[in-house]
Amino acid sequence: MKKLQLTFKTAEGHKKDLVFNYVREDLDAPTVRKAMDAIIASKLFEKNSVQLYSEVVAAKYVERIETGLFKQDLAI
Questions:
Q1: DSSP string covering 13-70
Q2: What's the pTM?
Q3: Which one of 6, 19, 22, 40 is most buried, counting C-beta atoms within 10 A?
Q4: 9 by DSSP, 3-state: which?
Q5: Which residues, 6+ apart, have CB-to-CB distance to 9 below 8 Å?
Q6: pLDDT grade for 66, boundaries at 50, 70 and 90
Q7: In Å, how far are 19, 20, 41, 58, 65 from 16, measured between CA atoms?
Q8: Residue 19 CA to chain centroid, in angstroms?
Q9: With the CA atoms of 27, 22, 43 and 49 taken in that order, what torsion angle do they form, in degrees rounded to the nearest 10?
Q10: DSSP 3-state of 8
Q11: What's the number of CA atoms in the CB half-sphere (13 Å) around residue 33?
Q12: Cα separations (Å) of 39 from 12, 59, 65, 73?
């Protein structure tokens, strides 16, 4: 399963990620950029009077791959 990681800058210039776990995997850059701009325009996310998402930095899909080595059954 891929996650969509959106990276923004806060109003104070710090990096802030917004990660979505269940997303379509065929989104293109203009669509994601438009959604990120809408998040910024909404001004819904604020902490201590600081806008958390004020500038678009990047967007990417992140995929975690696990390779199991063994699993011990624990009988209690």
A1: S-EEEEEESS--S---HHHHHHHHHHHHHHT--EETTEES--EEEEEEEEE-------
A2: 0.82
A3: 6
A4: strand
A5: 15, 16, 54, 55, 57
A6: confident
A7: 10, 14, 16, 11, 24
A8: 2
A9: -140
A10: strand
A11: 4
A12: 17, 13, 29, 46
Please report, for the chain, the start and end positions of each structural domain, with discontinuous segments joined by +: 2-63
Q: Give φ, ψ of 48 to 5 degrees.
A: 50, 45
Token pair 């959106």 is found at: 6
Report the chain's terminal Cα–Cα distance, integer Å: 32
37 token code pair: 């701009």
Work out the burial of residue 45: count CB atoms within 10 Å of its CB; fewer than 13 is exposed, 13-18 middle, 19 or more buried: middle
Q: Which of 67, 57, 51 minimizes the C-alpha distance to 10?
A: 51
Each residue's pLDDT tens digit, 15-64: 999 999 999 999 999 999 999 999 999 999 999 999 999 999 999 999 99
